[in-house]
Amino acid sequence: MDSWDDFVAVVDGPDSLQACLRDLKTAAFVSLALKGRMLSRHGAISVLSIRAGGNMYLVDVHLLQVAAFTTSAGGVSLKGILESTSVKKAVYDVRNAANALFFLFDVRLRNVVEVQVYHLVSRSPNQRKFWWSLDKAIAHSGVLDSHTLADFKDARTTFAQEYVTARGGDEYLLEQRPFSNSLIAYCALDVFFLGQLYDVCRALVTSEWIDRVQQLTAVRLAESMQWSYTPWSEDKKFAPVQWQLDDRSCPRLVAGRKTSTMSPSRAGNRQRPAERASAQS
Fold first, then answer.
1. Which pTM was predicted?
2. Is residue 8 pLDDT above 50, yes or no?
3. What is the phi/psi pair of residue 165, to 5°?
4. Region entry Disordered: which residue ranges (predicted)?
């Protein structure tokens, strides 16, 4: 497999940030993920992963801090994109991310597509008790063939095995620089397949369920921006009880139905983001 750092642009300075913003200026749909130490208002944001079409960026929030969100290029800033009502943001479990963005950087996420909720309602009622992790959802959804799924799992576990688990779960390792190849892969895979997962789940959801998904997403966002929000409450792992009992289920996802490859080179046919950011700096 090609090296991820050849196809993912690390945004860690004014020039690379402005190049990223110029690319995102016309985006109508982006996939987002955040990584950080105790990700919430109690901790810190280390990396913001963004995919827009074939372009992927890892914004070094640990280094750039507030400038990551307030720097503008052509009148566009990350804060403006995240708060825009015209740009859809696909996120998998928005709660702690929204809490961190709001309280640490005064960024209020809007127009969120909550893929975790879409995936929940695409499952049969007897599988709706718990919210699933992104990795489990991707494995269950059938967007990856068996070989690609194995590669995905290997890439996702490498960072945890080499850094987090082996060194006692030290989340400060997310703040070590320069970015290691395993950290780049770990963060990039948060968003690489997220749009495809959303497409698969969205196709299975009826209009009635879409309304309910949007209502719950709004509740999640509103609650996460309150001081009363508890980032690590045990209750967060449970889906709404009424959804567990509702037998008006959408068709279950069937593994192997629609597959994708994981090679970073398949992210798009446009110029590599890393090359473009360098050329424009």
1. 0.86
2. yes
3. -65, -45
4. 254-281
